[in-house]
Amino acid sequence: MGKIYKSITELVGHTPLVELSNYEKKHELKATLLGKLEYFNPSGSVKDRAALNMIEEAEKSGKLKPGQTIVDNTSGNTGIALAAFGHAKGHEFVTFLEPGVSREREDIFKAYGVDQYWFTDISERVKKDLEAGALNLEVLEADVQAYADENGYFYIDQCSNEYNTEAHYKTTGPEIWEDTDGKVDIVVLLAGTGGTISGLSKYFKEKDENIKIIGVQPDVNSRLDANNKTGNTIDGVFPIDINGISIIPLINKFNTVIDEIVDVSSEDAYSAAKELVRSDGIFIGQSAAAALFAATQVAKRPENEGKNIVIIMADDGTKYLSTNLYK
Ligand SMILES: Cc1ncc(COP(=O)(O)O)c(C=O)c1O
């Protein structure tokens, strides 16, 4: 039977869960690795879920008016999703982009016809904080809000927006549960705003508190704030734990339960991605690569024999062709 959709907004979610069968064999793994391929979303990443849910909830509440321009600070994927669904629903989008992210993101914003600024353009004090390597999210949010107010725009604020987390609680978690018939033992992923990890942790802990949530973070040498000169970064994500303190806003807001935190270097992440595209033809982005490397180490532990390990693969490799990921 034919099926024609009316809008890309109808195509968000229901992404496939795929066993990394050849990769498992190559590593002689006795656990099962399941990749949740979030790049099947219409604008190409896991952030489609949050973007659409935040727009729809803002429209419903009347805070986002018909035709009103949306603005947000983003490392790229949320902005691309806000531009895509914004346009599909009659809103322009203005982005403040995080410095240092892959060049492809800028080109994609140009293609979407988006007005593009950098975090450094927000205000003098945000610029100074960035130069000192001490970005203060509250200051950044206050100054983007002031910019939005001046221009009559709607600041959607993914870093504080509960509908970011809710998108994963309502859709990503239940999809994984259904596709595995409830046989989920471990979920492995990275965090930017923390929307995905807070929504999934809440969902799975309610289902069964024994399901483990493993948060992966770029190790100290992969961080721009560690004076990383290699250019080997993991875009779109941040460390989860810095000396016992989290800077991830939605992990803090929801007191998110994370059972374990695993550090991964960019180089290890990149080599795992290179292996996977050759073994199984699955072409992943940087944060998915870090999650894959961490999940492989977790799968090798004797206590995890026979377990199902779900890896959130946030986006694909095309946005990283200018980086060292596949070089
Ligand atoms: C590539 C990539 N991976 C992971 C994430 C983290 O997602 P979240 O903001 O839900 O923590 C992002 C966020 O933008 C991302 O762009």
Task: Please explain how this structure is put together.
The protein has 11 helices and 10 strands. By secondary structure, the protein is an alpha/beta fold. It has 2 domains: 8-45 and 171-320, 3-Layer(aba) Sandwich (Rossmann fold), CATH 3.40.50.1100; 47-155, Rossmann fold. Helices cover 40% and strands 14% of the residues. It has a 6-stranded mixed β-sheet with strand order 1-2-10-7-8-9. It has a 4-stranded parallel β-sheet with strand order 5-4-3-6, sandwiched between helices. The longest helix has 18 residues, at 162-179. Helix 2 (47-61) crosses helix 7, helix 3 (77-88) packs parallel to helix 4 (103-112) and helix 7 crosses helix 8. The structure holds pyridoxal-5'-phosphate. Pyridoxal-5'-phosphate is lined by residues 45-47, 75, 77-78, 190-197, 236-237, 285, 287, 314-315.
CATH 2nd-level architecture of the largest domain = 3-Layer(aba) Sandwich
Multimeric state: single chain
Strand order of the largest sheet: 1-2-10-7-8-9
Can you tell me the CATH class of the largest domain?
Answer: Alpha Beta
- The low-confidence runs, each spanning 5 or more residues with pLDDT under 50, are none
Secondary-structure blueprint:
Elements: E1 17-19, H1 21-26, E2 32-37, H2 47-61, E3 70-74, H3 77-88, E4 93-97, H4 103-112, E5 115-118, H5 124-131, H6 137-151, E6 154-155, H7 162-179, E7 186-189, H8 195-207, E8 212-218, H9 249-253, E9 260-264, H10 266-279, H11 286-299, E10 308-313
Parallel strand pairs: 2-10, 3-4, 3-6, 4-5, 7-8, 7-10, 8-9
Antiparallel strand pairs: 1-2
Bound molecules: pyridoxal-5'-phosphate (PLP).
